[in-house]
Every structure is written in C-alpha cells, then in structure tokens.
Amino acid sequence: MKIYDVPTAKETILKRERLEAAETPQSVLDGIEQRLGARMTPEEAVRHIIAEVRARGDEALHDFNKRIDGVEIEALEVNIADIERAYEAVPESLLRNMELAIERIEAFHRKQPAISWLDSSEQGVLGQLVRPIERVGVYVPGGTAPLFSSLLMSVIPARVAGVPQIIVCSPPPIHPTILVAADLAGVGRVFRVGGAQAIAALANGTASIPKVDKVVGAGGLFVTLAKRMVYGAVGIDGLPGPTETMLIADASANPVYVAADLLAQAEHDVLASAILLTPSAALAQTVQAEVERQRARLSRQSILAQSLAERSGIVLTKDLDEAFDLANEYAPEHLCLLLDEPFNYLGKVRHAGGVFLGEGSFEVLGDYVAGPSHIMPTEGTARFASPLSVLDFVKLINVIGLNAPHLYRPAAHLAQAEKLDAHASAALARMKD
Amino acid sequence: MKIYDVPTAKETILKRERLEAAETPQSVLDGIEQRLGARMTPEEAVRHIIAEVRARGDEALHDFNKRIDGVEIEALEVNIADIERAYEAVPESLLRNMELAIERIEAFHRKQPAISWLDSSEQGVLGQLVRPIERVGVYVPGGTAPLFSSLLMSVIPARVAGVPQIIVCSPPPIHPTILVAADLAGVGRVFRVGGAQAIAALANGTASIPKVDKVVGAGGLFVTLAKRMVYGAVGIDGLPGPTETMLIADASANPVYVAADLLAQAEHDVLASAILLTPSAALAQTVQAEVERQRARLSRQSILAQSLAERSGIVLTKDLDEAFDLANEYAPEHLCLLLDEPFNYLGKVRHAGGVFLGEGSFEVLGDYVAGPSHIMPTEGTARFASPLSVLDFVKLINVIGLNAPHLYRPAAHLAQAEKLDAHASAALARMKD
Lengths: 433, 433
What we know:
CATH superfamily of the largest domain in chain A: Nitrogenase molybdenum iron protein domain
Number of strands of chain A: 14
Oligomer: homodimer
Largest interface: A-B, 131 and 131 residues
CATH class of the largest domain in chain A: Alpha Beta
CATH architecture of the largest domain in chain A: 3-Layer(aba) Sandwich
Strand content of chain A: 15-25%
Strand order of the largest sheet of chain A: 1-11-10-9-12-13
Number of domains of chain A: 4
Largest sheet of chain A: 6 strands, parallel
CATH topology of the largest domain in chain A: Rossmann fold
Distance between the termini of chain A: 78 Å
C-alpha cells in the first residue's frame, strides 16, 4: 500500500472512473461472444438479453441460466423443500447471529421517521400520505462469497416500510445461507436467475416471475446496465459501483485497527478501494507496515494484491481540515473517523453514505449488525443519494383537500399568464356559482 | 370525447406506452437530420449532443442554441440587467400572485418532515443525518406557454431543503415571466440553453455552467433521454412523460366543473390525457355534451382536438369500487375525486401523484397555488415514485457511533460465513485488547 501526497492522490486513487464509462476489457468481450454467440458490447448484450426475456419469458431465463451461468435448473422458483434443505445446511449458531442482525436492522429502520402528515386549517387539508410500494424485487449477486448480509440489508427496510410482496432473484446455484436469510427476513418468493436477465424478468414479468414496481440491489456491470435501461418502467435504487471506504485517522489511532479496516474493505473485490487520510506521517508508516504484516495471514490474496495496489493507498494531508475537505470532495460510501473525540467532527461531514465514529464503531460492524443498511451510495453519488432505507420502499401521495375560494382568482390569473385558458376557465367556472 | 366501457378503455386510453419506447415519428427524424446534419435516432442524437458538450463546452452550447433553437445569443448567462428588464415586462398584479404562490409552496414544504435523528443508548449512537444537496440544476422548458409555475414548483422545495446553489437552464429566448419567477424564488444563476445540451452542461459542467449534483425538471423526449444517460454521474428526479389526470365522479358531481377540469388537463399538450371514471351514465352524457360546449370557447383548439380524441375519454364503471380499482392500476399523476364526501374515499387511494378531494380542490389550484409541488409522477410511476418534495433535495448520511463490544463476535462470525476473513479479522482484532 503506497503513501501519497495530496496532489498525486488526486490524480490517482482519488480519481474515479464510472464502471460503465470504462473501456470494456477484452476478456469481457470474449465472454459475451462465447456465451451469447455474437460479438457485442456489454450494452448491446444487455439490450439483447432484455429483448429476449420480454419476447420469450421463462424460456429465455432457462436459456440464459444455461449459457451464462452454466447451470441447468428444473424450476425457476425455490420451493419449500429447497428452503428446508437449506436450513439443514446452516449451523444453529449462524442462524442465531442472522437473527441478531435481523433484529437490529429492523429496530433501526423502525425508528426512521416516514409517516403521513395532514395539516388542516379553516382553508381545508393539505399533506402527504406515505404508502408502501407494493411489489419489490431484490437482486442478490452470486459469486465466490454468498452475501446473505446484502439480502438482509435490502429486505428488512422494505419489510419495515410495509411492502407486502418482496421477491428475490439470485443466480443459480443459490447458496443455502441466502435461502435461509431470505426465509428469516420474510421474503415471499425466491427465483433462480441472475444478471441482466433477472432484472429484465423483474421489470417486465414472465409466466413465473411477477412484474415488480421497483428493483433494488447491487450487481456487476451487466446488472447495472440493465437497471439503467429498465429505469422508468420500474423504480431502481441506484446504479451502485465498486465498494469504497475512506478512513480519517490522527496520531491517536491504533494502527492495528486501521490496517485491519483497510484490509477488510480491500478484500471485497479487485475494484474495491480503501483509502486512509492522515496528517500523521508516523501513523502512515506504521499502518503501511501493519497492512503488510496482517495481509500475509489472509485468504483472498489475489484480490487484496490488486485492490491494494491499484485502488487503495494512504494520503498524507496537511491537517485534519484538509482530510475532511478531500473526503467531502470524494463523497465516499463509508467514512470512518479513527480520531480522538470523533463526535466533534460529525459536523464537518457533508457527503458520505455512512459515517463511522471511533475505533469501536468500525465498518465491519456496519456491514452486519449495527442496524443501518450497509447498502450505501458509491462512486461519489453520496453527493445526491442516500443509503438504502425505509424511504426507498415508500412513496408519497400529495393530498389537496382545500376549501379556499379566495385562491380561485389568483390561480386563474397565473394560468392566463401561462396562456393556458382552459386552466383559467376551470377556476373561473367555480366563481360563477 | 368518447364514452368507453371498461374492457375497451383498458385496451385503449388506459393503456400507456412510454414515450421513449414509442416509434419515432418521421417528422422528428427529419428535424434531427435538418438540425444536426445527419440521420440519427433520437438516442443517437442525444448521445452526440452530450459528447459534443463534454468535448467543446460552451462553444457546443452556442452551436446547439443556433442549430436547434434557432437563436443566436451573446451571453449564456442571464445578467442583472436582463432581470431588471424582465421585471418591467411583468405586470404588478402578476408579481403579487406569483408571490402568493411562492408563499404557499414554501409554507407547505416547510411542514414536510425531513429531519436528522439520532438515537442514543448505553450502546452508543445510531441515526441519520439529513443534509441538503449542494448544487441543483433545474430545467425549465420553453415552448408556447412560459411555464414559470414549474420553475416555482421545483425551486421552492429545493430552497426549503437548504440547497445553497440553484441553477436554472431554459432554452432561449427566455420569457420575462420565467426570469422574474427565478429571481423571486431565489435562483442563483440562469442560463440560456435548453434540450439535451442543457442537461449535458449541468451534468458535466462547462466554462460557464457549473457541474451540479442533481438535475430536476421535465422536458420533451430529448431531455428525458439525456437525463437517463447522465443518471449516475448526477442524480435526477425521474423521467417524466406527458401529463395525465383521472377524475372519479359520481352522480352528485357538477358536470360543468368536471368538463372544465378535463379540458384544463387536455390543453397541456397533444399527448396529455384526461380521463373521467364514473358509474353514472347520466353524468357521462352530460359531461360529454358539456366538454363540447366549453371547448368551443377555448384557444388551444388543435391541441385539445388531438388530446381529447386520442388520449382522453369517459369510462363507465360498474360502481365506484371498480373506478378506484382502475385508478390504482393506472396510478395517475393526478387523481381528482368529485364525489359526495370525498374524504371518505382517501383510504382507497394506493397509487397517485396527488389526490384532489372535492370540487373545491381542483387540479388547477394544485397547478399554481395550493402549495404541494405540481411536479408529480407520470406514466404509472406513482406505483414507486413520489411528487417532487423536500426529500428530493436532501440526502441521508447513516451515523454509526457504537460502543458495543458484544457485537464484535457475531459480526466476525457472520463475516466468516460470507468467507470474508479480513472482515472477521477487523472485528476479532478489537477483541484482543
């Protein structure tokens, strides 16, 4: 892990390129050709997949499962026997910890304010109803590590919001821990399908998979491209990119914890990014050594090698103010303050998905059991986007119940100024009686 | 305006095709070729425009102003002298009514709950900070009617949310009422540029126009396509389509008001849709006659002719329950209840942008002076999306400030089950000390 000065860091690790905008690696293009039988860009491939799912429904899903995931399945939908078998594969202690996580995620989101309000006066009633979205599709990626925690972090806020129908799609074979997490979290139906084809199925519906109102959850490039294309026909939660963490630490920080937190972030993914900002040159050097020492004992070596070398680093800042300036500019998904008296710095945080205060409140706690959803805005979208929460699973309905004849003439006048005379007439008609 | 039975209505006026998905009319393709000098689909044209604005900045904006809007401007940015001249062109009475509108929109949004919360216990602190977005771009379309009301309906909620920098783009020449509305509403800077090129400028920034964090506001097909493409690099408020209203009326409704409300909606746009659902055959017929009678006196005849014939109609339902079922399925932007005791029916509304209760609380009031933003979800997106509100101009930051060592072991255990051993190590490291 390299140590950078600020100008160099700005030109390298603090500069992000959106995954969609990056040049497509040859291996991805080859993979598309091999699986779909034609030379296509990822965007063309996703367009093709969506069109096929629209035209051929379940048949296309079985097809893509075979060609893309290399799995031939009998039934798209997971049944009760599958869930029962999954429970047998999950140790009792893991079940109990999942339940602890569920309990804490639920408790946190129950505290989030998301309530209807009506304000009444002699002029009538105005307000906003908060209503749950009716049908939500949650995408859960497959891959090397079965991320049941991401399922919990999307499903529980939806359930707290009151969403009556929650549907999960995940590429086959689905790991037993995912099935158990889905069942414990209260998911209604689970389907064995992944990638762009899962997003297409949720957005359009097939004979087996019901059309949903909103699709949430992270995936790779193909899932992201598909979400962009179906947006509008259904809602989406965002277009998440690779995960990232930024730590701000001062000389008081324990370098063992700092290094461990950086490594925890870096092991996610070759594109993951773990950045330490510190004004302490001494800390920078100890952490650098400590990262080397700790990483030797870890298992995901090739991922760590790549993410630490290419996307991560230690940045030496002039002072803590400069560190906070850089952090606000970067708008990280996770911002961890390993500072003496971290609460004193909360007011400096303008853009971040989540802020973790102090060494006892580290990102891994937030990944599993702290309570807030760990699905947070990446790639600087924290400038405008929020972590997943109850608000993502409700919508507002404006309520206008006025009895205010004194507003009719102003409304008519404003309509006339917009040259909308039928608008004006609708107001004036009411003044004649 | 035709009267439909339910099955026919479902196959015609209640069936929506997304504007982006519709086949491009020849006239649009010809327009693109004429203005941009090449045969392109709208999507290709927008991609080209965005690339040009990225590459050539302000120069491209001047170019597109000339080629697309046919206007040669000296300065992209509106200056104080321009604003002063605009005030001279706006009558005092209109100013006063704009101020009334601003006051009411502001009062409504100040009541909307959007506040930070922190919950503390012996285990520490958890909560969510609500922070304003820093820079918002508001797109205001040009066209035949200068819709200053849409500017107010987006700018005021942003200002109430605390957004410090609000920037408006609108195609030249900008009508004086738009400039005055922008000034009264507290907009910081106004730029003379429209269409996809305005969205591209706001999303990427140019020498003159600062890059914003989020773009809001409705436009035509090109603006919508551009918003879809820039989404992710910046936030967007949605992909609004043609405006639509649905009225549910019973025999008690005044047919004069019902007809006036339908016509007010239909005059917006040839794609606008105004639909009455009623179980009363008598009302259906009187309204049909009344629409014919009233429309003769109105000015936007060719728009009315097309929207009334193609996108609007009266649907005879079995009873009010069937009307509400249809409305919830359609999820209209506006839902107006011209019913005896309309409040009794509020509980039946599951999906709508706004619900208007009773004959005294009609859509035109909501368009200008009721208070809630009139920018509401169209094309059935009310199933998952909300009207524009303070929530569109803030984002949440999760706060995790725990002191809860009893959670370290469960977190480590869950991490191990996900095969993330550096995650587990970050938790276990803290247990050694």
